[in-house]
TrEMBL record:
HAMAP family: OM_assembly_BamB
PANTHER family: CELL SURFACE PROTEIN (PTHR34512), OUTER MEMBRANE PROTEIN ASSEMBLY FACTOR BAMB (PTHR34512:SF30)
Keyword Ligase: no
Database matches in Gene3D superfamilies: YVTN repeat-like/Quinoprotein amine dehydrogenase
Keyword Membrane part of the UniProt annotation: yes
Gene source species: Serpens gallinarum
NCBIfam families, sorted: assembly_YfgL (TIGR03300)
Cell location: Cell outer membrane
Family: Belongs to the BamB family.
InterPro entries for this protein: BamB (IPR017687), PQQ_b-propeller_rpt (IPR018391), PQQ_rpt_dom (IPR002372), Quinoprotein_ADH-like_sf (IPR011047), WD40/YVTN_repeat-like_dom_sf (IPR015943)
Gene that specifies this protein: bamB
Protein name as annotated: Outer membrane protein assembly factor BamB
Amino acid sequence: MLSVTVLVAGCGSSSKKELPPAELPKFEAEIQLRKVWSRSIGSGQGDNYSMLTPAVDGELIFAADVKGRVVAMDRTTGKVQWKKDLNVPVSGGVGAGNGLVLVGTLKGEVIALDSGSGERRWRAQVTSEVLSAPATNGDVVVVQTQDDRLIALEASDGTQRWIYDNTPAVLTLRGTGAPLVTNQLAFAGLSTGKVIAVDTRRGMPVWEQRIAVPQGRSELERVVDIDGGLLLSGGNLYVVTYQGRVAALEQNSGRILWQREASSYVGVAQGFGSVYVSQADGTVEGIDERSTSALWSNDGLARRQLSAPEVFSSYVAVGDLEGYLHLISQVDGRFVARTRIDSDGLRARPLVVGGWLYAYGNSGKLVGLTIK
């Protein structure tokens, strides 16, 4: 299996001269973002297009770097509670919940740490490298591997409960979306443009739904990966593919509620009856769920390699390749605020908990922000 790392938006034809990222548009700020605290998390994302994201569990926020440093901090003050150097190349993380902090490695391992102390609970070998955060419901840990397998490990000791095989696409983007786990179901988006739901206890398939059909003559044109992960909200599952569609599915049946053409490798956000997409070309789009029509489209960040969007208060937050965090109005898509987090770039999805937004820069700078 071959894989492609997305370094420029759109993966355009080599016969066309690549256009530079758009210049940042000027606007009059309507709100101010306050940087409450900032911490350095080792080497950050590294040079292999890793997509490590922080995770919050209770009053702690957890972050990891590519060299295996995992740090737990108080999420309102940034005060470090513990650090753990695993000394392995971390490529998937962070997952957190039910007393566990979880990371995956390039060596195909899943490592579980105690969320309170940082001590290692267990270490498990899986079939191939892990490029997204493992997920847990307290009973089972589910991980998606680069070869499109879904693997369940016992949350107590890491022993394998089941493995669900899938045949990956011939050509894929480098990366996988993180699985989602409820008490009964594990959901995952695949490189073939499908979403699957698997029973967490036995690993039996419950439903499968195709979101995008590969089209085009070349294998590159036929890439329809679901790399941005899935979003579960209000009983609906939201998903977007590269060179395919954005869609909402009914959680228990997989029935498609609505769909619309889109292309993204970073994912979606949802709020106030709308879905927000960071398109591969750098356009941010707001979609009305009732009509499936575009409420607004903001192309002011074209070719700026945007992060996944996240809803923050009445706004949509996205990061870009120069490390700027942009806030866009959910109502009409206008820019309302901007601040620079990390000059090395900001590719990880912003994390929002309550009135806080956490941004993790490529160089390892983690910042906690609020609105003034």
